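G.,

No rush on this.
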Amino acid sequence: MPARLQIQPKDCSPLGLLILRYLEQQHLSMNRLAEMADIPQPRLRGACFKGTCPTPETLRKLSRVIGLHHLELYTLAYEGRIAKQPEEGNLDGLIRELFEMARTMERPTEQPSSAKIEQALLALGFTHAHDSNLKDSNLKTLRSL
């Protein structure tokens, strides 16, 4: 059983809460996880707190040990830090749901091309920024007729 954790959940970011849960589930100490991820322990500990900005390299190293994609950890680390614009809706929730669904599926044998990723996003209802500008322009033109 690991030593009593000194980091309190109330002080943690969503990433920190994930790290604490992982430590408890795996019966690991913060020192052992830092060693396994090849991250200095103070950096790993600091990544747990609200308002911190872990580096992409720290998130990549940690993701290899925890078994989650580094972008998922990035999303947790920066959750709530970027102001949401009204037209975005719940993009964080959508991204999280995409990751959860992807985890239940077989991984592709090779990286999908940008064109395939774009097609998938379009099928989900995303549009290009210039498309929405064209739609707005077309609506204004139709209203003026």
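When you get to it, here's the other one too:
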Amino acid sequence: MKFWKKGFLILFLPLMAFATVHKFYVSVTNISYSEKDDALQITSRVFIDDLEKVLEVRYGFKADLATDNESELADEYLEKYLRQKFVVEINGKNSPFDFIGRKYDNDLMVYYFEVAKIDLPSVTSIQIENEILADLYDEQQNVVHFKIKGKKKSFVLVKSDTKGMLKL
């Protein structure tokens, strides 16, 4: 009997190591310039369950995102959180953004920001500070892709380094 227990442990435990699910904590943000709208357009994708958790931990707010029970206050709390954790600076100055809206795509929330009335010829730098979910998950990675004036640059922002800058 003792042999079977040891044999079971020797065979079963290594298999269990591969059966655990590893959770990735990542968001992806794309930033581009629209000549038509004369605006900086920002699109971000974040896992819904992570956003729900941060709203509950930070504000005690149960959002029930992407369900039939979604709170009518979800946009208000979501925008409040995003404004505290996402900052756009143009030429070293804070540039307020408009929260355009959001949609769901499977287990992701896609939300849209816009910085209006950009005089692109006078822009020398655009800096993004993205601390989304870094206050909840130490492993959080916020990937930012710039595509402006033919220049492309990407950053992986983490809790210890939350800023990325594109120089034009």
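The radius of gyration is 21 Å. The longest helix spans residues 2-19.

Enjoy the weekend,
O.
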